[in-house]
Amino acid sequence: MPEKIMVVDDEPDLESLIKQKFRRQIRGGEFEFVFAHNGLEALAKLLEHPEVSLVLSDINMPEMDGLTLLGKINELKNPAIKTVMVSAYGDMDNIRTAMNRGAFDFLTKPVDFNDMEMTINKTLEQLLILKQAMKEHDLLISIQHDLSVARSIQLAILPKVFPPFPEIKEFDIYASMNAAKEVGGDFYDFFLIDHDRLGFVIGDVSGKGVPAAIFMAVSRTLIRATALKGIGAGECMTYVNNLLCNESVSSMFVTVFYAILNIHTGVVEYSSAGHNPPYLMKSTGEIIEIEKTGGIVLGALEDYEFKSGTVKMEAGDNIFMFTDGVTEAFNVADELYSEERLEALLRELKGKELKEVVDSVNKDVDLYSTGVPQSDDITVLAIKYLKPV
To answer: What is the topology classification, in CATH, of domain 143-385?
Structure first.
């Protein structure tokens, strides 16, 4: 289905100019435009075309101006409609008012049609991310009374085929997730951003059960969709944090460690959002805690700027990522598994294949907590950098 865009403007020539500018997208079935000449006509057209997802509206119009129309659209409480306001460059007071009232973006007149195209594409990209998140949210909500089905769906959205990219020889990767309940709030993911870069991430949502699983699915979707734009690790965390702050309910948050490996150089750019620091397992047997970047959890504080760090992997080095279900597992004496025990085990696993590393950690945690019910999700992800070929 084409994206349906409504243009609201009383300029008589604008309709023909837009149809000429976007003739390729219209002919290719990407865009469909609906035109109105004032706010009243636009409201009528919205009822006639409920599929409209983007409204481009002039501010100064007869009968009903753009600011009033913006308020009426907001009353619909439909997050799948975004409004972009258009006005003269000197009309910055009205533009500022529109932004404060919830407009997604603005354009100035005389309209630069290249700028308009970029703004439309950017807005539609954000709508796509939102719709994907809403779809996963609604999917999990609809099956919350059937936890066995919910668990199957949750496991299905986590990558579980290893090796995931057998044709790529520069790295190996392995991961596992064991939920404390039928469904959990931990997640991991990895994906090729382009021919040179691999993104990989681990996260831990606050809380347990179905609410955490829903928030986990939303968080994973937003991180993947944003990361695939190819932006830096810190910028990705900043952007996703703002989205989650806007959408978060019941004060939920998620800790995340997101990293980008250049598969040709071994350089890893990363950003931490309040998550346990991973370990760099050197091929020499040395275990190094990766330096923190100082980030807070995602979904807690809007407009927080996350920073990036870098670490260099040599051939044979591993990065071992984990959630606090590993180090905070309890034994019968109510003692924590601890970072010290994990580090000692990782030293013993020098030179082992990734699957053996991951399985050995899971087995040791399970052995340590024998007789104690699992209190938290346990998730680990390990990546090994191999000599480029």
So the answer is: Phosphatase 2c; domain 1 (3.60.40)
